[in-house]
């Protein structure tokens, strides 16, 4: 188990290092974001099946992006899995995708404790862990959201975190649409 955790940590550190150094070149392809999000939610539900939590797509605008499928998958997988880790039992992670002004906007909301306002600006920094409910006991290293931010940035996108007015944390990702789609 420790060897697997160490391997995972090394892999995340290498990914983050490549993204920060600019060595992580984008190999652009047309990516069907609806299919990508559906696949990630399905995989997440497989893992959450015995945990009284689930992930659901509450809005699914069809959208095509030009980007690196592996990097986009990694970014969205990190955000969705993180939300699944912290959503309260008996609740669902909500994934909503809509088109806004020529961009795809994806919101991923958990129904967990949220985070303190001062930490919202730091939540995408490497190794940042925010609060008792989001501590090392969760199994993470504080790298997933940092990787997501860099991957989204390489695609001309933006990512932000906010506490939802009805509770939980909501991550918003905005990416430019592919030409014609």
- Order of secondary-structure elements: HEHEEHEEHEE
| Terminus-to-terminus distance | 44 Å
Strands in their spatial order, largest beta sheet: 2-4-5-7-6
Count all strands and give the number.
7
* Poorly predicted ranges: 132-137
Strand content: 15-25%
Shape verdict: globular
> Which radius of gyration do the C-alpha atoms yield?
16 Å
- In DSSP terms, counting alpha (H) and pi (I) runs of 4 or more, how many helices? 4
> Portion of residues in helices?
25-40%
Largest sheet: 5 strands, mixed
Mean pLDDT: 84
Structural class: alpha+beta
Describe the structure in your own words:
The chain is α+β, with helices and mostly antiparallel strands. The chain contains 4 helices and 7 strands. It has a 5-stranded mixed beta sheet with strand order 2-4-5-7-6. It has a two-stranded antiparallel sheet with strand order 1-3. β6 and β7 (169-176) form a beta hairpin. It is globular, with a radius of gyration of 16 Å. The model is unreliable at 132-137 (pLDDT under 50).
Short descriptors:
25% strand, alpha+beta, 4 helices, two-stranded antiparallel ribbon, 7 strands
